[in-house]
Amino acid sequence: MKLSLFNHPWIKKVTANKQTLKQQEALQAMQRFIAQYESRFHLIPAPLVFDKTDFDELSAATKTLMAVQKKILDVLIHRFSKEEMLDYFDLPQEILPLIDWHELSSGENMIARFDVLPNEGGYQFCEINAESCIGGLKLRDCYKKNMLALGIDYDLDESPRQAVADYLQQKVGEKNLEHVVIFSMKQYLEEGTGTVRALYDTVCQTIKDKKVILAHEGDFPEALLTPEKGAKTLVYRLAMYEDVNCQALFRNIFASGATMVNSFASEIRSNKKWFAIFHNPQFHELLTEKELKTITKFVPYTGYLTYENIEQVLKEKDNLVFKKNRAYGGHGVLMGREHELSTLQEKIADLTHWTFQKLVQCNTIDLPLDDSFNLTACKVVLGLFLINNQNSGMLIRASNKSSIVSVATGGAHIGWMIPMTSSQRDNLIQQVDSSIDENEEIEKSRKYTVF
């Protein structure tokens, strides 16, 4: 069902009762939650709902595409040397010792978020973030506070940060590890997302029988870099390769034999070139009919930019999005229709590092973006989490200003989607009504109580 249509009765109920929601401190509960992590997100003031049938279909598609990626990786790994693989995915040669090639070929340690666009025909993916550094892990827990403030408890989805913590606990048990390190670049601890400390807290609460250390490039425990200690250490990496200024430290961590989730194999898994690879006919003989149908339905047509096709591609620029193969957080994404031809040519001059993608005509949805609860038409991007091959909730980013819906570069608002059936949504609305009625009765009793 269309996102706007499924949400309409829920949003109508929320906006009609904004004063009561404020009185019950539902918004304040969220703000207190993110304040403890010094997070500076612009939060959508209430959770949104998502059709369970669509959620299940998208979830199945994420797993299918990861299986397709693994099949193609098996071919590429046998076809290319490691150095050639790095060239193929636009990676510098110095990253080679920081990649766990077994992790890449086996599909282990899968921590990912698929970005999803709603359109008239349903939904399509626009990006795969197969990366331990993905943001938004704590949002489900934040919006749970919102609902609990209304007296509503629900168990319709999972917490991504709890799913990550559970997976790390599983790895510790399987390998009989003794030390757990949540590793972040120091700059991430100061940037205002709160991702690192929120995950650290949950891992500490989950792996209670081990000491969990929060470390950055300036204070990683040297004692854990020996082969004896390293072999008993799990390192969860919260550091994008582009931000790493401590490659020697990472080489030492790898040399110690530590288990790292993820290694920089994620730089290959997350490369935007993958959507062009999915549509490349030379790989289709590897795939089943189901896999090919999934690509056709959920992956907008994407192609490699080459010196042979650039002239023809630019003639169609207004219907295309140009994406740099290695870029993050909304950077390296160019809407063809928003750029003059000469400007676009200049920006994509290094053609072989770019792909072009058919523009998805996205539906907008009217959303409240702040505590005024006034509705505004927004472009949205959804983010479906896949952790250890299990789907774990969905975030939403919304912007009423930019066609590039990004928290990092476009100032987008961010929120959470709860998957449910229509009957569960209607029951949720009834629970809000009951909570509001109860609150009004309490207010009346206070008003007329004589002291």
Automatic annotation (TrEMBL):
GO molecular function: ATP binding; ligase activity; metal ion binding
Keywords: ATP-binding, Ligase, Magnesium, Metal-binding, Nucleotide-binding
Nucleus listed as a keyword: no
Keyword Nuclease: no
Pfam families, alphabetized: GSP_synth
InterPro entries linked to this entry: GSPS_pre-ATP-grasp-like_dom
Superkingdom assignment: Bacteria
Domain Glutathionylspermidine synthase pre-ATP-grasp-like: 48-401
Protein known as: Glutathionylspermidine synthase
Organism of derivation: Legionella beliardensis
